[in-house]
Amino acid sequence: MTVATDKSKVSVYMDADLKRKLEALAKEEGRSVSNLLERLAVQAVKDAEQEGRI
To answer: What's the number of domains the chain is made of?
Structure first.
């Protein structure tokens, strides 16, 4: 499956239990795991910027 996007691809390794929990959370929120992780990353960066860490 090819999706046209201007976003960069990121690959990560994580514990299988964490992956299962992320999948469950994403499903509960009606989004993909990729979208959930992007949302969490955006919030983490926003918080760090507001705190002056980056």
So the answer is: 1
